Amino acid sequence: MLLECVPNFSEGRRRDVLDAIGAAARAAGARLLDLHADADHHRSVFTLAGPAAAVRDAAVAAARVAVERIDLRDHRGEHPRLGAVDVVPFVPLEGAGMDDAVAAARDVGRRLGDELGLPVFLYERAATRPERRNLADLRRPRFEGLLDLVGRDPAWTPDFGPARTHPTAGCAVVGARPFLVAFNVDLESADVALARRIARRIRERDGGLPALKAIGLLIAARGCAQVSMNLCDVDRTGMLEAYRAVEAAARDEGVAVRSSELVGLVPRKALPPDPARSIRLLDFRPDCVLEERLAAAR
Q1: Is-contact 264 182, C-beta < 8 A?
Q2: 79 is known as an active-site residue
Q3: What confidence tens digit (pLDDT) does each residue in 127-141 have?
Q4: Annotation: CATH topology of 181-297
Q5: Which residues make up the CATH 3.30.990.10 domain(s) of the chain?
Q6: Contact at 8 Å (CB) between 202 and 248?
Q7: SS3 (DSSP) at 182
Q8: Which burial class, exposed, middle or buried, applies to 15 when counting CB atoms under 10 A from its CB (0-12, 13-18, 19+)?
Q9: 3-state secondary structure of 37
Q10: Which of 36, 41, 79, 166 is the catalytic position?
Q11: CB neighbours of 27 closer than 8 A, spacing ≥ 6?
């Protein structure tokens, strides 16, 4: 039985910290399939896979390093965050079902609370409350806002761990979900308000495309605004459809699309033909496909 774990850490600039997190995960027995780090987002996305027990241990080992090395009091980045160990989703792979991913999420959530002193909230399929299924709702107060909520507002009582925000590492969100594609589109404009208008127009929450989440960000290193998206069900909204929605909304504003980028790996079924042309995908390589990376790691 294989599981995938895609932990997101609030660190995208210090390579030594990222290397230490990856080394801890590998030492616990998981395969590190991919690492995507972004300095402007100040965030990294690791893709781990392997037998369920090894992936659980790897998630905890990686989180331990993150708690030791990341201080959110000094953290400034474009991407919303609530913890050093910001979100830890589990995804069923070969021989595993969603129940197995939920069991892994709840076990790891308990261990992060007991061993690392993190308040942990369960989300998506592992959620214990319906209002906690949506990651965006949990992340909305961010690290600074949660300092005044956890331990004071009963609605913010964590599922595991202490009822107080960790002073440097904040909180963690752990869950189980199907495959998700993280996909960003850069605009030929540095107007972040424009990117936010486009995000509101295309995302499901505001009446846009189904199973699509989106925010607008400024990417200083590239001198452009970006529409940063999560495609939560590629059978309902795929990469090509999402790209075309951004392109159309930008065109209506008199702005062109510059390029797109993939964050982490993508299931083969989610990738459109000729992605460099059809969605202007930068730096695409065949080994960005999850199934290819899994096969190479065997």
Answers
A1: yes
A2: yes
A3: 999 999 999 999 999
A4: Alpha-Beta Plaits (3.30.70)
A5: 2-176
A6: no
A7: strand
A8: exposed
A9: strand
A10: 79
A11: 61
